[in-house]
Structure formats: C-alpha cells, structure tokens
Amino acid sequence: MTRRISPGWLAASLLPTALLVGCGGSDDALPQLTVATPATLQSCATLASSLALPNTSITSSVPVAEGALVATGVSTPIPAHCLVKGKMNQRTSPVDGASYAIGFEIRLPVAWNGRFLYQANGGLDGSVVTALGNTSGGAPVAPGLSQGFAVLSSDAGHGAPTPFFGLDPQARLDYGYQAVASLTPMAKNLIKTAYGKSPDRSYFAGCSNGGRHAMVAAARYGDQYDGILAGNPGFHLPKAATTQLWKAQQYASISSLDSSNQPVLTSAVTPAEFKMVSDKIVAKCDALDGVVDGQVQDVATCQAAFNLQTDVPSCSGARDGSCLSPAQKTVLTSIFAGPKNSQGQALYKGTWFDPGIAGANFASWHFGSPATRDAGAVAFIFTTPPSTVAAFNASTGLQYALNFSMDTDYPKMFATNSTYTDSSWSFMVPPDETNLATLRNRGAKLMVYHGVADGVFSPVDTADWMDRLQTANGGSADRFARLFLVPGMNHCSGGLATDQFDMLAPLVNWVEKGQAPDSVLAHARGAGANVVNTELPASWSPTRTRPLCVYPKVARYKGSGDVESADSFSCK
User: Fold this and answer.
1) How far apart are CA 82 and CA 64, in angstroms?
2) Cβ–Cβ contacts within 10 Å for residue 258, how many?
3) Which of 101, 200, 103 is nearest to 150 (CA)?
4) Rounded distance, CA 239 to CA 253, Å?
5) Could you say which of 9, 306, 436, 509 has the lowest number of CB atoms within 10 Å?
6) Residue 403 in contact with residue 379, Cβ under 8 Å?
C-alpha cells in the first residue's frame, strides 16, 4: 500500500476556502467557487526571521524590483515581488547516507491577485527552477507571476537532476507525490503571513513530469487545489520510460554501428525520412478537416486514412530520404503501435501518426533520451530494488537500454521489498485516476492538454484516460475536466503546430466564474514571435491562429473565411 503523508497540522494550518455557492456537489449541480480578491504584500525582508513553520528553514527573503528579473520570451515585465527561499524536511538517508531536503522558492508579487500557483517542474526534478509560473504552450507571453499569482517552485525533495536519489525510499516518495503534501500547507501559511490572508484560490500546473505531478494532485489533493492544469502528462511515467528503452531496441535493429560496434540510433530514421513521412501524412489527411492548410486537425480519422506501408514509398535501392526500407517500415509500425512483451501483452499505449513527427523534439526523445534520462530513471527510480551506482556505471546507458527485458525487468516497477515498501508504480501514478470525486464535488476543475506528436508520453494514453473518466462519470466528466489535444505539437511545445497558448487564464475563468472553455486560442510562433519556431512551414502565416478543441471535437473549417484565422474554424 502507498503511504499518504497526512501531517497532523495540515488541516489546522489552512483557513477555510471561500464559501461555495451552489448545491454542495450533487450530480445535478456542482458548486461554484468564488472569485479571488487581491491584496498587497505586507512584508518581505522580515519574513525569514518572523516565520516559524514545521520542519521548514527559510534561508532568505529579498525584494526584487520590477523588471529586475528577465525571462526569455516573456513580453510583459516581471512585476516587483519578494523572493523567498528555503528547505523542508532536512535529513540524512539511512539507506545511501546522502543528505536530502525539499528545496523551494516562492515569489510573492507586491500586487497580488489573491491566488497561489504551485509550479510543478519537469524531468527528474532536482532543481529549484525560477518560480515564474510558466504553465502552458511555447514561449508563454504572460507567466503566472506576471498575472499576479504567488508562485512556488521546488526540487521535489532532491538536490540534483540525476536519478541516484532513487536509492533512498523517502526521496522516491517525495518525487512521486509527498513533496507536494509537505509544500502545500507551508506555502499557504507563508502567503498568509506575507499578505495577511490565505490564498482565496489555489492552482497547480505543470507539463511533462510536471503534468504527471498535476494529475497526481488532482487525484490526491483535490481538497487543496481549485484548478489544475496538466500538460503532456506522463501520468504513467514508469511505463513510458521503459517504453523508451524498448524503442531503443527496435531502432538498434536497423541502425548502423559506430567504431565500438554500438548502434547509432539516429541512423535508424533520418530527419529527412521523418520529414518525408510527415509530408505523406499531410498529403493523405490535410483535407479531412475541410481545408488544405498543412495541418491535420482530424487526427482520429487520419489514423484510418494513412497507411505507412502503402502511402510511403518503399526503397528499392539505397536510402535517399524519399523512401523507407521494408525494415524501417516494420520498426516504425511496431513503435507507433506500442510495446508488447513476448506473450503479446500490450504494455503501454502507442502513438498517432501526425505531421509533427518531423519535429526535432520528437526525434530527440526517440534517439537521445533512452540512453540518458530514461536508462537512469528506470534503473534507480522505477525498479525495485534499484541498481547500484557501481553496476550502472560499469556499462553505458545505451547498453542498459538494449539489455532491458520487457518480460523480466518491466514488472519490477510493481515490485516491493522490505526497504522499498512502496512500488514505483504506486508512488508515481494517480492512485485512482478516474476517481476525481473530491475535486469534482468541491467545484474544482481540471484542464489537460497534450501534443499529438509527443515523442515520449502517449497522447493516445491520455485520450484513453479521458474516455475512461467520462465513463466513470456517466458521460458528464466535462463538467469538471476537459482535454485539449494540440495537433502537430511535440512534447509540451514545438513541432508543426500552433503551440503558443495560455490555458491558465481560461482555467481561472472556469473555476471562479463558471465559464467552461469550449476551445482555447493557439498561435503559431512565426517570424516576429518572442521565441520563433523555426520548424514551421514557410507557407504558414507567422500570425496563424487555431482553436484547440475540447476532446473529442476537432477544429473544422467553416467553408469560408481567412484560412490563417481561428475565426474561420469551429469545434465539431
């Protein structure tokens, strides 16, 4: 069983949230949460000395002038705020002897909008990244801090973005979910001291592993957060990471060898070949949404329309980027279908054929990540018992990936022993991912987005979760949870996509005003954007916009109007 952290002071430390308006969470009418009210920062320099919070050390609290913090790609100036840094639950591990703590920073704007935002970070965590509140889409124009949120960032309980913390059982649990349990009441208490009141509304947002954190928070901490935003969520991360190792094995079977007789994975499918397949997908599926514009909105119909075997030329001679060999087609067909073990059991969802597979980000996850991030994560965090450092370093990450067995090693994510009493699966994933009753019945909301051409976390898996959530809620889950697929987008951003969007503001409007978002406006990051997406086709207007639709609806051309404008499309 997974142990849930329940500090005795958790409930007592939090003031009641604003009164709910409505019928108390019945199936007929969900409560409507009230709008947050602003306040002004009362203190900054004295916070470090005046606060006395359980198991918490505030190491500094310093004022930051308006514009002093510069964020790449952000057009609005970062407002004046107070930067608070600290640590929680400092300890020495009895297992690996290393020192651990939950490091954090909170940025408290002088002009506060009354809201708290937990910024969940990605990857292996391990770094307290700047608490700007960058929450969705490529190069966001106005992060949460600019919008007036008090923003928290943490390292999730370990001080380096490396997988070796997986040797410590408690560090595993903190990474999985328990750091959130510790940080949430601390942050709310600190905010109360700084402004003279607790946050009226609390939000949680992140992408990738941050999206996993968000999905876990929706299931575990629906009583603490009013709005949750999960981007490209790796909510089945142990399965996705092992799938990465399996992908490496598939690609290795058609790769050339280097001077050490090791497979060069990038040789399996070249950028030109991925671009050629992307073009073939566009040629077959572009018009399915009513207009030829270089984008495939109707991804579901495209999967039936596009056939890798027949729509992509087969090489009769040397590979030149205009064809695929039969072996390449076999491997890609297998990878897009998803991994199986030797018994033919499906172990993780596959992915969709989408033009965004031409994106460099897609290829980097397929070829670069398995031998680096994924090998280490699986070896130390998603396997019980974990590898030893000596054993892992005795070989290479690539060799670890190539030697990984989906028959005998994959099941170790579900294993426990006397030291690691919680399995990797139990601490990493939402405990009951289609039971969001606590969040739902409070009037809280969940928005999820996922790039259709994600190279690591399956968008099919996320869509399947949404289907199951609908079933579990009698077909009415969209009253509190909505999924937005982003055609062409890679992992969190990039690809052949209109990938710049803000979902935080629509989430706030849904939570506090009852304005359920039927679509979200997305922009292309063309020439003139704060951060340009150089992969966009030259035929696209640099100011192209599209609606991102609530799944399973897709954006369809109305039949007239500017093809470059979202106004010419509707969600059907």
Assistant:
1) 6
2) 10
3) 200
4) 22
5) 9
6) no
Query: 413-445 pLDDT, tens per residue?
Result: 999 999 999 999 999 999 999 999 999 999 999
Q: Are 192 and 39 in contact (CB under 8 A)?
A: no
Q: Is 71 left (phi over 0), alpha (psi -120 to 50) or beta?
A: beta
**Integer angstrom CA distances of residue 18 from 32, 33, 163, 223, 226:** 10, 7, 40, 13, 11
| Alpha-carbon span 280 to 14, nearest angstrom | 56
pLDDT in tens, 373-386: 999 999 999 999 99
pLDDT digits (tens, 9 = 90+) for 138-196: 887 789 999 999 999 999 999 999 999 999 999 999 999 999 999 999 999 999 999 99
Check 354, 454, 499, 502 and give the catalytic one. 454
Q: How far apart are the first and last CA of the chain?
A: 43
CA geometry: angle 428, 121, 52, nearest 5 deg: 95
Report DSSP state, residue 225: -
Residue type, position 347, single letter:
L
- Predicted local confidence at residue 46, as pLDDT: 86
The domain spans of the chain are: 43-237+430-571, 239-417
Q: Which residue shows structure tokens 């404008």?
A: 565
Q: Under 8 Å CB-to-CB from 35, ≥6 apart: which residues?
A: 200, 512, 513
- The CA distance from 439 to 436, in Å, is 5
pLDDT score, position 14: 35
Q: What is the pLDDT of residues 6-28, one digit of tens each?
A: 333 333 333 333 333 333 333 46
Within the chain, which residues score under 50 in pLDDT? 1-27
**Top-tier CATH class for 43-237+430-571:** alpha beta
Cis peptide before 385 (omega within 30 of 0): yes
Catalytic residue status for 208? yes
Q: Assess contact for 480 and 487: CB atoms under 8 A.
A: no
* Cβ-contact 533, 498 below 8 angstroms: no
Which token pair is 379? 């070896």
On whether the CB atoms of residues 155 and 127 are closer than 8 A, the answer is yes
Whether 454 sits among the annotated catalytic residues: the reply is: yes
Cα separation, 504 vs 298, whole angstroms:
25
Annotation marks residue 146 as catalytic: no
Rounded Cα–Cα distance for residues 465 and 449 (Å): 12
> How many H helices and E strands in the chain?
18, 17
- In this structure, what are the phi and psi dihedrals at residue 570, rounded to the nearest 5 degrees? -135, 155
